What does this fold into?
Amino acid sequence: MIRRYDERLHEQKKMFGGEGEALFHRILNGPDEMYGKGRVFSHLVLEKDCEIGWHVHHGDGETYCILKGRGEYNDNGTIVEVAAGDVTFTDDGEGHALKCVSDEPLEAIALILYK
It folds into this structure.
């Protein structure tokens, strides 16, 4: 299978009460395309001061691979700066948030797999 960029799902939405909106370019379209092992595999873009608000994972875990920009990552209540090349992981039962703090957009790959 080859899915061209213009055939991919693209959605912009407010996430967990965070400021602004997150833009998702779906790489795979949910559980059916992930053999039922996950629900999100997307290229995520956050403009300056936009964020994915605090949320806790239940029954799954999420990884962000930061591609561009800089962000503030809330890792279970501890705020740390993340930048291109960094990888974060939030396990089942843990919480996180991500905010773009650079003038350029923060871009990341987001992957959510079921436990």
